[in-house]
Model the fold of this input.
Amino acid sequence: IAQSVSGLYAVFQLSTSLNPETDCAMAKWGEGDPRWIVEEREDGTNADNWHWTEKKATAWSDKTIRTLLPDLAVDGPGGKARITEIDSITGDVIANCRKGKLIFFYEVVIKVKWTGETDDGTVVNGTGEIPNLSEEQDIEDVEFKVKLTSDETSERKKVKEIMRKKGGDLVRTQLATWLRMLKEEYASDLVKPAKKAAANGGASPGVPAPVKVAAQPAAPKASPKKAEASQPKYKDFTLADEFKCTAMDLFSAICTQEKVQAYTQSECKMDPKIGGEFTMFGGNVQGVFEKLEPGKLIQQAWRFKHWPAGHFSTVVLKITETEDKCKLSLTQKGVPESDLESTKAGWKNHQWDRMKAILGFGSGLSIF
Done:
């Protein structure tokens, strides 16, 4: 009992010795120890994107894939075929963000119907299936299973093989487009913009400024103006030029590593297949082949190394052969406005003009 009374008396003495104006005053707004102040955010949540956030993308993916796959058409020796409809899409697609990093989980099964005809006009019907579209597998390795629903004949089997090989390549190209849209567009709002910390009186980053305890109230501080986040603007453009060569020569010059290295006079890597990657000019230009039609068309996901992380433009190169020359038409979409002119000049000065001079493709008239 004596110890308890003694303890209570000590507390009473301490409380009567405190100055209510200085020792017991609550910290005013903005005057606390900066080590304990959580960064102010307009949305009030998930500072610095630290916590795990999730966004379901199943419904969006279903809708997007249903616009990308129908009407894909292929032909070859033996006949032609095209995908007519999506029969079903099952599974889940989820986008996540943790510590500012986007993470994707998806496991999807896609079933389609296709129709075609043999060289003699016989109708062919069949189905196609992607049994396991998953983040654990590269798009270029996705399997496309094809079956006949029509009676099987040797001629109809040729059309089936055209759909399996060429149709499968087109399907994988479109799925690569879906995946890029998922990462760059649909999931972009998962990463919240971090507000820059206010200047800390010259203190080193990560080291809190000394905390002063003052008896006098601090003078009011002006509220810092919020910096407006500037979003990059993107532009599209077209170019065209003529070359004195065959369409296949020009196609090979654009896709063959040895030839590209010869006329750019720089290190490059080329893997000319659907989903194959390429780099040029020592890695400053990089991308992926999305569509290849020998002698006719090349489509690429294309970027400069310094562009915003994950952003690719779309490049489509069309080759048209005439009697003694061929025309190359380029369309490029999604180029940051600040790099528009240098990108246009790069195609002409560092690739096309050098291709003519070094590979002997002549000096056709450029068309802009």
Q: What stands out?
A: Confidence is low (pLDDT under 50) at residues 32-41, 196-229, 364-368. The two ends are 98 Å apart (CA to CA).
